[in-house]
């Protein structure tokens, strides 16, 4: 029998790491909003074309976002040659490599969950108060956050590690690196060392 236990740690990042964390949170908000924009655009198209497919699940939105991020719609530049000719160069979402890819995927999953909650609420599959259609996240009103998965590499090394540096009070995140934490991580480290616990992807 297994159970889920939450360990909460307060990060103590450097100035540079704070910038990286904010960038990841901004990327998550951007991906959520872009995923929702895909859905709204598809719903509008379906009014005139009933057979048009609307991406609704997290899986669909991940695929849609991954396709879109490499297209001209996501980014382009105009290159002017020495003889004055102008050429359009597709860059796609050129800053996507500055953050961990998982941030985009998990934000798309969040959007899909919000859509499912809305549809289940309308059809009576979800009890409780009615759930409204998702809204775009605003920078000044939404809480900056992002989620990462604990992927296990072929070598057996986990993507998220606790106390994996010279300082036991640290957490290592994929795409970001080791960040100091203010609390003692001893209890969790002992549980992990004895295989009594594992860091799982949030449900």
Description:
This protein has 203 residues and is α+β, with helices and mostly antiparallel strands. The chain has a domain at 162-203. The protein has helices at 15-48, 58-68, 101-123, 186-193; strands at 76-80, 86-90, 161-162, 170-173, 177-180. The strands form 2 sheets. The protein has a 3-stranded antiparallel sheet with strand order 3-4-5, with no helix packed on it. Strands 1-2 form a two-stranded antiparallel sheet. Helix 1 crosses helix 2 (58-68) and helix 2 (58-68) packs across helix 3. The radius of gyration is 21 Å and the shape is globular. It starts with 14 loop residues before the first helix and ends in a 10-residue tail after the last helix.
């Amino acid at each position: 029998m297994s159970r889920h236990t939450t360990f909460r740690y307060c990060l103590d990042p450097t100035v540079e790491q704070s910038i990286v964390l904010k960038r990841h949170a901004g990327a998550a908000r951007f991906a959520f909003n872009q995923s929702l924009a895909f859905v709204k655009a598809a719903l509008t198209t379906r009014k005139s074309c009933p057979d048009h497919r609307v991406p609704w699940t997290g899986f669909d939105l991940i695929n849609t976002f991954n396709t879109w991020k490499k297209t001209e719609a996501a980014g382009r530049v105009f290159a002017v040659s020495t003889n004055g000719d102008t050429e359009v160069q597709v860059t796609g979402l050129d800053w996507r490599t500055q953050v961990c890819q998982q941030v985009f995927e998990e934000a798309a999953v969040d959007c899909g969950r919000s859509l499912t909650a809305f549809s289940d609420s309308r059809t009576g599959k979800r009890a409780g108060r009615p759930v409204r259609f998702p809204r775009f996240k605003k920078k000044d009103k939404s809480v900056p956050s992002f989620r990462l998965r604990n992927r296990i590499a072929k070598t057996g090394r986990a993507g998220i590690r606790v106390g994996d540096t010279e300082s036991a009070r640290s957490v290592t995140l994929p795409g970001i690196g080791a960040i100091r934490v203010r609390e003692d991580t001893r209890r969790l480290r002992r549980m992990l060392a004895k295989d009594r616990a594992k860091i799982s992807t949030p449900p």
